[in-house]
Structures are given as structure tokens and as C-alpha cells.
Q: What sequence folds into this?
């Protein structure tokens, strides 16, 4: 046994964790080693950071912190009781992963008991002292015991992420429930025999808690549900809350929807609100399906879940380098799918895997919150194969990206929660983080960056204007009108409706979806767009103009987003259940823009003295009350000439998926002066970017060049960090924006698919072309794909041939 004297010289540095000190005793901050790893985990008694065997010596050499608590966890399987086969099957009641009532990723896996073994280790030499040992110095004993007693930071983060989330039961209390207006109209609701007041439907009925109206609910994407009478009633009256009849329980619970808040909510006074209409909740019992149960049925009915997960195939598990799964940390599949795809591009591998030793060598003071460190840790963990270890059930142990998820979601109102999110929105968020953390190194996302060229032609003068902007994805519309199997879809819908009317259900495997040719999506994107109210600087008046969009450059890797998520006429989100014939290989030369042609005449530069647009303040206020972004509201009023709320709201609904929907609005054809830009920038945005070390003049210039959009301004200013000299004039327009360019031919190497009817629920999986074979990554399940469902994807990554 080592001599206690080895500890003496280090006692002055030993600390006790403070009340807000996080103790990282679950996992190495530089790798996915943990107490269950063969070499265990070493927790510094100074910084309380945890290290695997591969990094603890480097940390000691860098900091001189020599004393660690070593944790080695032993797990033993618990014998399973014999199954009789007649026990009840666990019912899925929530559209969530890894929460009570949801899809359990651990279901069916063996259960274990865990025993932790502790010792105190002093470096160099890894001198070991057993724990507990009454002869250890008092500071060491107190510090070790505090580490053992400390709450896991992963658990703390989980609890924080669950605050205010909805996992199928936990909902926000409606702001309208406290002082809800209820009319004294004498209406009394009978205990049964309900029917919609505007049609003959007797199911999916909603009781308005203000006037007692009973009306049918919204129509679902597959044609089932109601006839939208309840939501129409809200639009006519403004009465905000309704409860679904048949879901009310004796405890005073039920499915309550707030039309004003556009969400399922909690009404803590539901029993009292129902009593107003003569309903005694103690005499009620649940007789109808909840909204969660209906959502689950819709998913199962479409057959999408089985198809995308290849449930009908006997998938062969794969293991090894670049075949590492990611454990689902409660609806984190959207993160898992995006990062799996990101690390298939050489730029990301070079920066964060091959460059990991350089990144780790810096040993920042707070590696847990260092984006580059945690991204490198994730990349090495995924590609090394070190954690691609088979588990007893034929899957693999994989890695759990706790630190990465917590870091990328930090301070973000959506990604910090445990709710399901849109993989595309997370991709855009990740691009912003990469840009912010690539000031002194090449940004790996540059391999995805391309220049978009817009050509606008004045219909009266025939003069043109070309503008370019940088993008990292190509959004393609999905035109349902271009479906090639309309007759078959109609026949299927008729059979399905007939089956449901008789209480039966068609086999989900036989579902017939509209088939949309990829060419139709491409043509829809390339179609000429008419722009009203365009200010022609050639004529100094507003005219009609025509815009076409092309690509000025073609990136090494092209990410295509199919715009499957849309807004229905009743303003509810919906997903198009379609099959798009995405090509394995494609030539996109038809998308190539050519810039100003010799026979074209340019529009003169717009004058900064052009009269500013006016907006009807009453209409603007009404649109803002509907929840639309202010800049989008301004656009709608401008393009509809302040003609009324219906025209403006219709414009908003049609343009919600536009690339620049929320960007700062500049009337088409106008150009703000530099002085105006400086005067109109948002001061909060200026301060936010200045906090990163830039001068006010630089920040104002960046915000002015990007219409005041902070994210785009960051991209603008970081991409010019080495050129920003305010004494130099602003450089002229660069048609390529510094983007890489090359041939327009590509092959498909990965795609991400979504299961479910909304981005906020369901599940994501990805398929990746690995060494000539397609592999399915379904969280920690990695297997050889037999039937890659490329026609049902959402995001597609193409590599230049």
C-alpha cells in the first residue's frame, strides 16, 4: 500500500464542492469512459472533473492536480422471473421516448444491480489508497465523501430539461383558465347522447367552456377526425378553451385545448368550469380516446413507423468504427440523427476527429462547456469504434451524449427541453454554433455552404437585378398536384373509410401514399415567382416583377430538405404523408445560375430616399396577436396593400415556409442607406454581438448587411473577421460569396426520416451509406439496412460525384 506521505504535499489544494459545484462523476469530460469502463473513472478532488484513463495523466501534467477519487462500477444481471406469456402487454400512452408511458428503449433488456468500488489515487504513478480508510487525511476524507454524496449533473440537467415540457400528460396551465368567462345562458350538458351542433358527428366532440357549445374537432391528415366546427366557433367568438368530451375523469382531468394558445393545456379549475354547465365530474369516466392515443393510432395506421425502422426485416446488427449508436436521452433522436450524418463529411472528421488531439491538448478550464471539446469528444466516440460494443440483446451499448446535448441546448428555449424537436431546425442551430466556434479554424460546415442567386426582372422596364445570399440547405416544395398515382390513392382512401365505418382497420403495410416525382419538386422550386409591389428604381414606382431562384455555386455536400411539414387551412401544423422518388444519383445542372447576361440591363441602384412603407397599425396589432413574427406581419401588409386581416393572414399562411419569413423586411427594390442602417439596428442585438469582442462599428455594419438578423450577422462578421478594417470601403458584391464550387452531379449518401404527424412528436432515424452498404442508425441500434426507405425521408445529404 502506498505511503500516506504522498498525499501530504497536495492537501492544500484539496477542495470541497460548493453548493452549486457540479461533480462530473458519471463520465469523462473528454471521452465516453465512465465508471463501468474497464479502467473506471478518475474524479479530481480539486476541479471535480471526471477523466478516463487515457486523459487523466494529461490533465495532471497540465494542472498539477494530482489527487483523484477512482470509481469502478460493477454490474451484475438480475435473473428474470420465468415468463408465463399471459401477462399484460405494456401499453404505450405517450408520444415520447424514455419517459413513463412512452416508448421504452430499455424494454426487454436485462436488468442489473450496480456496486461502486472507490479508491483514492495520486499521480504520477497511480498510487492507490483504499476507501474507506480512517487513516486518510481529514481534507481527503471530506472531499471524497462529498463527491460520493453529490447529485449527478446529468440528473440535474434532466430535471431542468423536464421543467415545463409536455410528454403526453404534463402540460402548461392555461393563462385563460384562472378568470375564464362563462356565459349564464342556461345550458345544461346531459351525461350522454352528445352530437355536434353543426353536423351529425357523435365522436371527437369538444365542449366550449365559455358558452357550452358542443362541436366536432379538427380533421386529421388522413381525413379522419372532425369537420373543424370547434375551431371555426373559436374564430367567430374568441372563446379560448374547450374540453374533449369522453376524456373527462372523476379526478377532474381531461384533454383541454386552448385555441388562443394553440396547444393542449392544463385547466386546474376544470371541475368548476364543468359544474357551470351542470356536469358533475365525479359521475364521469373516460370513454373516448385522448389526443395522445389518437396520435398513436394515426402513426400506426400510416405504417410509416414500421417502414422507416424496417421492422419487417431481420436486421443484422453491425459494430465497429463509424458504426457506433447513440442512446436516446428522452426524445433526443433528432440530435442523434443529425450528428450521425454530420460526421460522414471529411471536413467534420478533419476538424473534430483528426484534430481532436490538438483540441484536447488545450485543456480549457471548463471543458464541459467548451463546444469544440464536446464536439470532438462526440466525433471520436462515434468514429473510433471503441464504444460500438454489442449488448446482450443484439444491439450495442453505444454512447450517451449527455454533455453534448446539454451544451448545444443551453439557453435555447426549445433544445434545452426534453420535447421532440425538428431535426432541420436543430441542423440550422448547429450551423450557428459551428460558426461561432470557428473564428480561428476553418468552419467544417463550409463544405455545405453555397450561394443562392435571385434574379428579379421589372415587368415594365425589363431591367434586372441579381442578388446572392449564402445558404446551407436546399428546401424543395412537395407539390401534391404532381402525384402520379392519384387514382390509386383515391381508391385506397375509399377502402380505408369503408373499413373504419365498419369498425375495421386496413393493414398499415398496404397504405397507398401519393407518389411525387423528384423532378416535380425541382421544377416547383425553379418556377418563376410573381412579386407585387416591387419598387422599380428604373421607373421610380411600384410595379409587378418576376423572380427566379438558382444556385450560383454548388457545394461539396448538398443537404436537401423536403418541405413536408406545412400549415393547414385551420392553421394547425401537419405533415404530408407522401412518397417522393428521391434519386440515388442526380444531375442538378438545371439549377445553375449564370449571373448577368450580355443582353440584360441592370436596374439602377435604389435610392435611399424612397418613401418608407406604411402599415395599418390596427391590422398589424391583430396579426401580432395571432402569434406571427413582426417582420412577417409587415411583409403581409405591404404585399396586400393593407387591404384587410383576411388577405394579410392568407398571405402569411402561404409564405410561412419561405426562407426569409422572419428576416427583417426591406421592401423589394429599396435599399437602406448606411446611416439609416446604423440608426435602425436593434441595440440588444448590437450588445449581444459586441460581447464577443467586436467593435460597435463592425457590429452595426454586419447587422446592416444582413437586415438586422443576429444569426446571419454572426455568419457575416465571422466570415470576414480577418478583413474587417473600417477604414477600407465595403468590398463590391461577390457572386460566389466565397463558397466552394464544382460540378453539379451528386450521389445520395445519407438521409434522415421522421415518423409521426408533427415535428414535435414521433421519432427520427437515419440511413447512411457506409463502405458501399446502407446502414440504419436507430439511436443505439445500428444494423445493415435491407430496404432503405429513401422515398419517405425528410433531410437528404448528397455528395458530389
A:
Amino acid at each position: 500500500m502506498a505511503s500516506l506521505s504522498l498525499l501530504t504535499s497536495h492537501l492544500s489544494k484539496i477542495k470541497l464542492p460548493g453548493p452549486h459545484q457540479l461533480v462530473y462523476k458519471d463520465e469523462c469530460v473528454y471521452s465516453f469512459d465512465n465508471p463501468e469502463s474497464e479502467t473506471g473513472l478518475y474524479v479530481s478532488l480539486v476541479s471535480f472533473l471526471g477523466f478516463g484513463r487515457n486523459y487523466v495523466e494529461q490533465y495532471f501534467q497540465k494542472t498539477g492536480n494530482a489527487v483523484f477519487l477512482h470509481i469502478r462500477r460493477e454490474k451484475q444481471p438480475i435473473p428474470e422471473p420465468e415468463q408465463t406469456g399471459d401477462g399484460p402487454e405494456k401499453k404505450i400512452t405517450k408520444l415520447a421516448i424514455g419517459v413513463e408511458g412512452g416508448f421504452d428503449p430499455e424494454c426487454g433488456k436485462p436488468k442489473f444491480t450496480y456496486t461502486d468500488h472507490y479508491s483514492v489515487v495520486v499521480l504520477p504513478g497511480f498510487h492507490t489508497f483504499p476507501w474507506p480508510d480512517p487513516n486518510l487525511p481529514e481534507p481527503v476524507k471530506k472531499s471524497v465523501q462529498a463527491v460520493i454524496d453529490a447529485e449527478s449533473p446529468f440528473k440535474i440537467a434532466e430535471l431542468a430539461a423536464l421543467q415545463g415540457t409536455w410528454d403526453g400528460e404534463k402540460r402548461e396551465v392555461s393563462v385563460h383558465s384562472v378568470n375564464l368567462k362563462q356565459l349564464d345562458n342556461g345550458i345544461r350538458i346531459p351525461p350522454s347522447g352528445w352530437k355536434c351542433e353543426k353536423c351529425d358527428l357523435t365522436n371527437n366532440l369538444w365542449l366550449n367552456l365559455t358558452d357550452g357549445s358542443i362541436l366536432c374537432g379538427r380533421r386529421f391528415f388522413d381525413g379522419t377526425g372532425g369537420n373543424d366546427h370547434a375551431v371555426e366557433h373559436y374564430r367567430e367568438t374568441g372563446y379560448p378553451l374547450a374540453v374533449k368530451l369522453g376524456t373527462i375523469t372523476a379526478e377532474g382531468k381531461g384533454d383541454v385545448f386552448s385555441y388562443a394558445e394553440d396547444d393542449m393545456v392544463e385547466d386546474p379549475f376544470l371541475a368548476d368550469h364543468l359544474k357551470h354547465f351542470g356536469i358533475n365530474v365525479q359521475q364521469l369516466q373516460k370513454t373516448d380516446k385522448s389526443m395522445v392515443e389518437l396520435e398513436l393510432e394515426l402513426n400506426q395506421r400510416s405504417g410509416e413507423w414500421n417502414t422507416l425502422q424496417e421492422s419487417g426485416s431481420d436486421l443484422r446488427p453491425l459494430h465497429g468504427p463509424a458504426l457506433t449508436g447513440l442512446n436516446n436521452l428522452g426524445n433526443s433522436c433528432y440530435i442523434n440523427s443529425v450528428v450521425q450524418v454530420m460526421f460522414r463529411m471529411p471536413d467534420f472528421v478533419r476538424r473534430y476527429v483528426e484534430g481532436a488531439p490538438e483540441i484536447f491538448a488545450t485543456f480549457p478550464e471548463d471543458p464541459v462547456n467548451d463546444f469544440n471539446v464536446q464536439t470532438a469528444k462526440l466525433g471520436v466516440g462515434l468514429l473510433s469504434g471503441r464504444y460500438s460494443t454489442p449488448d446482450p440483446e443484439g444491439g450495442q451499448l453505444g454512447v450517451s451524449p449527455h454533455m453534448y446535448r446539454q451544451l448545444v441546448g443551453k439557453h435555447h428555449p426549445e433544445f434545452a427541453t426534453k420535447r421532440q424537436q425538428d431535426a432541420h431546425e436543430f441542423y440550422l442551430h448547429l450551423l450557428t454554433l459551428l460558426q461561432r466556434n470557428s473564428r480561428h479554424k476553418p468552419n467544417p460546415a463550409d463544405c455545405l455552404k453555397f450561394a443562392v442567386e435571385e434574379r428579379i426582372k421589372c415587368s415594365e422596364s425589363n431591367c434586372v437585378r441579381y442578388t446572392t445570399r449564402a445558404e446551407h440547405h436546399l428546401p424543395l416544395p412537395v407539390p401534391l398536384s404532381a402525384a402520379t398515382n392519384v387514382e390509386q390513392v383515391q381508391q385506397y382512401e375509399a377502402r380505408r373509410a369503408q373499413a373504419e365505418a365498419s369498425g375495421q382497420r386496413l393493414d398499415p403495410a398496404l397504405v397507398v401514399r401519393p407518389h411525387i416525382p423528384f423532378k416535380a419538386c425541382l421544377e416547383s422550386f425553379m418556377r418563376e415567382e410573381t412579386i407585387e409591389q416591387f419598387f422599380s428604381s428604373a421607373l421610380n414606382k411600384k410595379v409587378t416583377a418576376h423572380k427566379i431562384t438558382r444556385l450560383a455555386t454548388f457545394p461539396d455536400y448538398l443537404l436537401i430538405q423536403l418541405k413536408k411539414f406545412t400549415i393547414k387551412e385551420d392553421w394547425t401544423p401537419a405533415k404530408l404523408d407522401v412518397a417522393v422518388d428521391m434519386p440515388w444519383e442526380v444531375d442538378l445542372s438545371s439549377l445553375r445560375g449564370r449571373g448577368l447576361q450580355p443582353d440584360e440591363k441592370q436596374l439602377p441602384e435604389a435610392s435611399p430616399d424612397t418613401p418608407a412603407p406604411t402599415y395599418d397599425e390596427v391590422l398589424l396589432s391583430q396579426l401580432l396577436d395571432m402569434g406571427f413574427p413582426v417582420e412577417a406581419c409587415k411583409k403581409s401588409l405591404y404585399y396586400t396593400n393593407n387591404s384587410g386581416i383576411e388577405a394579410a393572414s392568407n398571405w402569411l399562411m402561404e409564405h410561412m415556409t419561405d426562407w426569409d419569413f422572419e428576416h427583417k423586411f426591406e421592401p423589394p427594390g429599396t435599399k437602406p442607406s448606411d446611416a439609416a442602417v446604423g440608426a435602425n439596428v436593434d441595440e440588444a442585438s448590437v450588445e449581444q454581438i459586441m460581447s464577443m469582442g467586436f467593435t460597435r462599428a463592425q457590429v452595426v455594419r454586419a447587422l446592416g448587411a444582413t437586415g438586422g438578423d443576429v444569426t446571419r450577422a454572426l455568419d457575416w462578421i465571422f466570415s470576414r473577421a480577418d478583413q474587417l478594417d473600417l477604414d477600407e470601403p465595403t468590398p463590391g458584391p461577390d457572386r460566389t460569396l466565397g463558397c466552394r464550387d464544382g460540378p453539379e452531379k451528386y450521389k445520395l449518401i445519407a438521409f434522415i426520416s421522421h415518423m409521426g404527424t408533427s415535428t414535435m412528436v414521433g421519432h427520427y432515424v437515419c440511413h447512411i451509406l457506409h463502405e458501399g452498404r446502407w446502414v440504419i442508425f436507430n439511436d443505439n441500434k445500428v444494423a445493415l439496412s435491407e430496404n432503405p426507405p429513401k422515398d419517405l425521408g425528410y433531410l437528404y445529404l448528397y455528395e458530389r460525384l
Observations:
- The mean pLDDT is 83.
